[in-house]
């Protein structure tokens, strides 16, 4: 069994009270998961302060406590370690506890507002196709060499990350690809990890409920690159306004990808249709199965990373050309009778919604109409609601506003936020149908043969969260059922 002293390696300690040689069975940041000889790390959170649960943790068997503030009364036989930052300590300690798994494989992190899941998943699929055992930490799922593990977060907490990485190392993985959310950077969930490379996709409006200002959101994303080692590579999107700033202070070796300017990884779209993209990538012409300009960027990022990792460029493009994207990202179905194109996409930010709708317009052959079903999540950034409502109307012939995980909020109020400030032209185009199933049905009832229906916001999600309860709901399943029921 490990002892506390070993696990504290490189943690910034302020004081120690008790026996630092105490054994540690496991690490926990949640008092509800404590067992015998657990080490409890008290973290100040958004909802609660872990320090309030120190007593509870000791009652449940914790023998060692990591905290920023010592309790007034110290219990006998317990070792208390006061640290500068508990969240950061949790990352460093988790890495020590699990034997530095991020150093035993090559860990690549992907950050940005949109495209993280797509890029990380493509990298996982690509390196698997190239013959490596790989790991993946993503919004849709975690993977350990082909074995699927349910994902609860885009980026899990530090202890879960290191436990998963340990399992990957034990399963013989030589690569791990992970999404790095801005919440994760800010909450130090990635502290103590050793990244071999970092990728930036893009930055636009999201999570301003959490980060408060756009500048702060940028600063947090940039902190990921600031933390990379000189031995790592950092790849950024030159066509994004903040693409260069992201890498301004990184010690890592910098690379850029672009569709518009000269860059190490340069792409040009030749054809963009429902059957995929035809592009040149560093002067080699390739056909990809992924659709839309935004995926051209995702593919360039993946190509760049694979090149930096020493893979053969031709082989990389050959493998990439046959890959499909991540579940729920621009997945489409054509109805058998009326040839209505139904698209399920995870666009849940203004930028993603705009991108996916612009892509749909580029794919249109004639005067097919575009009908969009969209909602905005409850207990999330409210400022994106009117922007998404307006974008849906601007870029569709008809928009149906509906619910997308209202969580603790009143769904009608969310719809009101989406409707607020719509232009007169937009007002003529939208209707609100609070029940998502009814909204999808309405979209199909309104569609003429050949029309395009976009169902945005939930992608791979298999639930609708209402008042804290997750009800089974799957946009793709609904779409298929309605097509059949309506005989389309
Ligand atoms: C807003 C946010 O990010 N919250 C995350 C945060 O929770 P928190 O700060 O609210 O924690 P808290 O409830 O205040 O508790 C503070 C501490 O006390 C502990 N505690 C609490 C209660 C108790 O009885 N005993 C106890 O020990 C908690 O375990 C925690 O360590 O830390 C928790 C542990 O790591 C996360 O599970 C939790 O994610 C919540 C569930 C969440 O919904 N997060 C979303 C917003 C999120 O993280 N999303 C990003 C993706 C965003 C994107 O699209 O880019 C993600 O990476 O998934
Ligand atoms: N490079 C990109 N630029 C802009 N939009 C994109 C890009 N890639 C994907 N999208 C759009 O954003 C949606 C979400 O994509 P993806 O799941 O890959 O992003 P993400 O960053 O992982 O999102 P999340 O933060 O929720 O995990 C897609 O369904 C698509 O509409
Ligand atoms: N990672 C994002 C996903 C949003 C997906 C959307 N369907 C919603 O529930 O708002 C979040 O947690 O904010
Ligand atoms: Mg994701």
TrEMBL record:
It catalyses: UDP-N-acetyl-alpha-D-muramoyl-L-alanyl-D-glutamate + meso-2,6-diaminopimelate + ATP = UDP-N-acetyl-alpha-D-muramoyl-L-alanyl-gamma-D-glutamyl-meso-2,6-diaminopimelate + ADP + phosphate + H(+). It is an enzyme of class 6 (ligase). Signal peptide: none annotated. UDP-N-acetyl-alpha-D-muramoyl-L-alanyl-D-glutamate binds at residues 31, 154-155, 181, 187, 189. Carboxylation is probably crucial for Mg(2+) binding and, consequently, for the gamma-phosphate positioning of ATP. Keywords: ATP-binding, Cell cycle, Cell division, Cell shape, Cell wall biogenesis/degradation, Cytoplasm, Ligase, Magnesium, Nucleotide-binding, Peptidoglycan synthesis. The modification N6-carboxylysine is found at residue 221. ATP binds at residues 112-118. It comes from the Bacteria. Pfam families: Mur_ligase (PF01225), Mur_ligase_C (PF02875), Mur_ligase_M (PF08245). InterPro entries: Mur-like_cat_sf (IPR036565), Mur_ligase_C (IPR004101), Mur_ligase_C_dom_sf (IPR036615), Mur_ligase_cen (IPR013221), Mur_ligase_N (IPR000713), MurE/MurF_N (IPR035911), UDP-N-AcMur-Glu-dNH2Pim_ligase (IPR005761). Meso-2,6-diaminopimelate binds at residues 380, 404-407, 457, 461. A motif (Meso-diaminopimelate recognition motif) lies at residues 404-407. One of its GO terms (molecular function) is ligase activity. Its cofactor is Mg(2+). Residues 27-98 form the Mur ligase N-terminal catalytic domain. Belongs to the MurCDEF family. MurE subfamily. This is UDP-N-acetylmuramoyl-L-alanyl-D-glutamate--2,6-diaminopimelate ligase. It comes from Flavihumibacter stibioxidans. The lineage of its organism: Bacteria, Pseudomonadati, Bacteroidota, Chitinophagia, Chitinophagales. The gene is murE.
